[in-house]
Design brief:
mainly beta, about 10% helix, 3-stranded antiparallel β-sheet
Length: about 140
């Protein structure tokens, strides 16, 4: 069985697949995200993010990337710096690097948005958390 895993990893390396660098589907306490395109070192990454009703992402910033969020379903309250916006389907927002930001689902249904990250490094460890409902640092 472990030989099969090694063979799969070798095939991923041979095919230069993004799965070597980031998982396609990642669950979080507030919902989940799916990596659609790009990886931590590709200069850009596109994610589909789903936030459960009443849940919110941590208040955070990033040193190495900016983000563009486009709402595709639901209603979200977005914090950018000290400003708050309510966004619905087909609305969007730009978050410059090193800017405080957060998304909260204020609707009764799942909130979905597409996040495009652009920067020199896009790893999950480029998150500075200031507040988090789930005790993550």
């Amino acid at each position: 069985m472990s030989q099969n895993v090694k063979d799969v990893v070798n095939q991923l390396k041979e095919d230069n697949r993004d799965e070597l660098y980031c998982h396609k589907l990642v669950y979080r306490p507030w919902g989940f995200y799916k990596n659609i395109e790009g990886n931590d070192k590709s200069g850009f990454k596109v994610k589909r993010i789903l936030v459960y009703p009443g849940k919110k992402l941590s208040l955070q910033s990033h040193k190495f990337r900016s983000e563009h969020w486009v709402i595709v379903r639901g209603t979200g309250k977005v914090q950018i710096g000290m400003d708050f916006l309510t966004l619905t389907k087909n609305m969007h927002v730009y978050i410059p690097k090193e800017t405080l930001h957060r998304m909260e689902n204020i609707g009764n249904n799942n909130l979905e948005f597409v996040e495009t990250q652009v920067g020199t490094y896009l790893g999950e460890d480029d998150i500075v958390r200031y507040q988090d409902d789930f005790g993550r640092v």
